[in-house]
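hey team, just a heads up i'm posting the complex here instead of the shared drive bc the drive is being weird again. everything in one block, sequence lines first with there labels, then the predicted structure for the whole assembly after. its two chains so it's a bit long, scroll down
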Amino acid sequence: MNEVCFKTLDQKDPWSLKTYEANGGYSVWRKILKGEFTPEQIIDELKTSGLRGRGGAGFPTGLKWSFMPRNADMQKYVVCNSDEGEPGTCKDRDILRYNPHSVIEGMAIGGFVMNATKGYNYIRGEFMEPFYRFEGALKEAYAEGLLGENLYDSSVSFDLYTHLGAGAYICGEETALLESLEGKKGQPRFKPPFPANVGLFGMPTTINNTESFASVPDILAKGGQWFADIGVENSGGCKLFSVTGHVNEPANFEVPMGTSFKDLLEMAGGVREGHTLKAVIPGGSSTPVLTAEAAMAMTMDYDGIEKAGSMLGAGSVIIMDDSTCMVETLTRLAHFYYDESCGQCTPCREGTGWLYRVLKRIMDGNGKADDIDLLMGVQDKIMGNTICALGDAAAMPVESFLRNFRKEFEYYIEHGKSMVKG
Amino acid sequence: MISTTAKKQIDNWIAKYPTDRKSSAVMEALKIVQAENENSLTPEAIQAVADYLDMPGISVAEVATFYENYNHRPVGKHTIRFCHNISCMLNGSDDLIAHLEKKLGVKTGEVTKDGLINVKKVECLGACVGAPMFQIGDQYYENLTADKIDEIVDGLK
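-- predicted structure starts here --
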């Protein structure tokens, strides 16, 4: 446990350059500066490692990096997505607070591979403690000559800056993040063109999640195969899981992909005293909810969670015990998407409002007999009909809550009160 | 409208972006100016930021109204930003918000009579392992209980 992104966690000043270097940090970057690595080698190792995007989409990182037109004669950018805000997710915050240098080294390596000499780390506006930590780490790295121009007299240059958000979940969507970095409303762009061709300031850009970047240095230090072997087929390495909700000891755990859900639940101290497991959202609020039975049989990897009927997402495991009213929970999630929809696409802007208002009316005791059909119809009309994935993210919980816990919704509509809470 | 100190702070942000991309600093410029003006933005403040960054006023107004961190009416000296999303809700945030409202004698969205505090329900702040939690200024307060809230709030000046 805690082998890669969290490996400095239990040490003195885990965020310092000294601690990072004592654990082998910047050894890969220093090799690159001595000319001991080629971009092609790095991409091959990353492909071997099976590292997939840790922000939620799960796209293979090595493949993504290979899409950049590295020889194009223009400024290219590397951008880190630290705009963490999916309900249930709080892992990147801890990487930034406790191991910021791993993100810096990962981004610098990305810059070398993609021939991008400038990088930005987009940190959500509320993350001020992580922001100051990361800024402190940047200062250390510059002072040590690890960032800047013609580093250690090589031809390699990499400058890295922070950018702060201002409170918008949608900016975690990569093209909305780019808009925001350009000083605009965070409304997602149409793809294509993809950011690798037309990204930040119109230049080729690659965006990765904080955890993805933080995983890169160790993969290259110890080899892609080493990382792949930690995990299971199709899900290389280890992954951070944020286990929250009705557990005794909520925390972030970095465990091998393929760990059983049962073991992960135990690490978090199990379900609260006197209660039994009712439901689990395995990958953050956007991923379909599972019944206790489905969750208990599941392994924590891309295929394992998909087989159980949901998605790994960002690894945000939300535990709900038998005291949970599923109508109330879905209403809260629906409010989130209603609040956070950027308003650009009609199905999402209007649909998220419909979902929330219909659920609210059920909660207020004014539900109508055909409200379940209405909710199903609205979510179906959002699904797949928007520019970005926020629409789908709003729709998926609705479909899965209604499918797995339909009786509770029917009861609420019929009796005007919660089946669980009365 | 924008003080010399604030301009210096904004310039530090401008320096991070390409020379012809000053507008990238708009989000921080608005925060800096907001902090100088009792934590809210007037149309005049928005225009001042626009002028300073050579941007059309409407572009800055779009940003100022799109993101949640900006206020457009008077708020308290301290804003308590209480997370009410799923992990916090499962851990009793609704009861604690009610406790806080009762203690302060205001509803969420209102400012205490002395102008010191307002409470805002916000969406996930990304500290779910510490639920229930809220934010005041730069700081997160986690694993809240009614007693802990009383202590924190009583310490606000």
